[in-house]
Amino acid sequence: MGLVISQNLVLSQPVYVPDGTPLILWDSIVTTTNITADSEAVGYPATNLANAATNQEWRAAAAGDVEITITTGSADDQSGVGIARHNFGTEQIAVEVGYYVDPSASPPVWVSLAGPQIPANDEPLLFWFTAQPLAAIVVRLTEGTAAARAAVLYAGDLLVMERSVDADKEFTVPRFARKTEAVNARSERGDYLGRIVTSQYTDGIEHAYSHLRGAFYRDSVDPFIRAAQQDVPFFYALQPDDYPYEVAYAWLTDDPMPKTNPATDRTSVVLKMGGILE
User: Fold this and answer.
1) Helix or strand or coil: residue 147?
2) 185 and 87 within one domain
3) Which of 17, 143, 162, 245 has its CA 20 to 30 A from that of 260?
């Protein structure tokens, strides 16, 4: 059994990292050819989960238990699963990540990697488990009050940052950087008739990282930034130990310009981001 921490970040036997070290899931192995679900509504296939866009959803055909399977086809380690734009909190749907030891066995043996857990809300989810090669990753959803739906599903090996954001600088928590678009209704004589919120998102986030080892930056951070510059969103947990429920599905809003100290070969970089709330 894994250790479940709070509502959104689910941890199971993680490797040791310093407290407050951010987690990033960006290099997803999910494609339209390796993901299936045992329930799909017409027009909302599981292949939509392989698209990073949040306006294309997978929906189950009806309320009920559902399994989504990712056949990895890889011997590389996997350590995380991210889900965005879902209804699991609203509809009281428990989520669990795991795999079957032998799917052909009767009955097959289930191994849980993280969960099960009913999220407190519909904000992005991130599951973290021990890095290991997996032939398949299964996301189990229990029956809730309505059919399950989600727009994005990532699976891959998490980038564990070498250190936290700079301690001597103020930073914005993505969850708190809410921006609202709304239509204000007024009568002909100017009376206020209410406000219709059309969307909420998060923006204006700037997180500074300093003293990253040159090798770590080149091997781990630069590949992530290169992908993010090519329109690859990512799951981002800023303070997973203290606030594990604060997970963002984010993207870069400006190109980072890293600076390297010639004496220490340590690199600093500022990530400017925006993202979705639910």
Assistant:
1) coil
2) no
3) 17
